[in-house]
Amino acid sequence: MKAIAYYHSLPISDAAALQDIELPAPEPGPRDLLVEVRAISVNPVDTKVRQNVQPEAGAAKVLGWDVAGVVKAVGSDVSLFQPGDKVYYAGSIARAGGNSELHVVDERIVGHMPKRLGFAEAAALPLTAITAWELLFERLQIAEGQQDLGQSLLIVGAAGGVGSILTQLASQLTGLTVIGSASRPQTQDWVRTLGADRIVDHSQPLAAALKAQGIEQVTHVASLTQTDQHLDQLVEALAPQGKLALIDDPKQLDVTKLKRKSLSLHWEFMYTRSLFETADMIEQHKLLNRVAELIDNGTLKTTLGEHFGTINAANLRRAHALLESGAAKGKIVLEGF
């Protein structure tokens, strides 16, 4: 089967950073689906793994943890899907990625694809939807429902992949006042269309930007990028006993700064369930099915930002380069081999 992989961690400007190769087709385990990959999207985790994880000598490492496709075969213990089902999922970081014609994945972290979306639009959603959902409802423990409880959420990096779906979830399913941060006119417009009540520029001091809009403090913060650079501003902006959730990898984080206000810190990593095969691993299956329902009834929309063409090494290198530049809006998707 066709696949895109790398053998050495290299800068994305190097043609060997990602290569078109041929690999044997994988065999599904008892709880696995064998999926014919129709579309993928690219996430920051792809670039981080490529830059930092050196494959074993002579081994090819396949990236890609967002897939939309069709079930081709099922393992002996599979009960949730059957061949022919259209599915979407983010997979497991402990297994080979989905940048290949065929891919195996545990059924417990797979959802039925939204009926109203094509494969490219669906591929934009799984990883970011899982991350945003778990961050909002499980880590920050926000209640679903439109009742105004006087709570507010500042989303730092609201125009990115996770921010694009988190802004929608928070504005459509909760009573939160949603403040999205974005630094360019086009990304600010994007965040506004996703449902944010207010927009602030995270290239400026955030606490001052909030106060300029009459917002003295917020009760919750989702910091999706550059947390170490913004920490002092976030602590200042948070109300006493507020909650700070993050998904990025700060080089350093002085948590003692949270003590005076009794702020709580919550880390969201959507691979935790699949990595440790937790008892509640199937919650990601249920979550993706719920997101599909919300897409189909018009509550949510795909966060596809750019379509980079067919799935090949050249197009994936372009996608990695754009993500590494920090200028991406929404999700980058590739479709077909």
Tertiary shape: globular
CATH architecture heading of the largest domain: Alpha-Beta Complex
Total separate domains: 2
CATH class of the largest domain: Alpha Beta
CATH homologous superfamily descriptor of the largest domain: Medium-chain alcohol dehydrogenases, catalytic domain
Portion in strands: 15-25%
CATH-assigned fold name of the largest domain? Quinone Oxidoreductase, Chain A, domain 1
Q: Count the strands?
A: 16
Described by strand count, sense and barrel closure, the largest sheet is: 7 strands, mixed
Subcellular location: Cytoplasm
Family: Belongs to the zinc-containing alcohol dehydrogenase family. Quinone oxidoreductase subfamily.
GO cellular component, one term: cytoplasm
Protein name: Zinc-type alcohol dehydrogenase-like protein
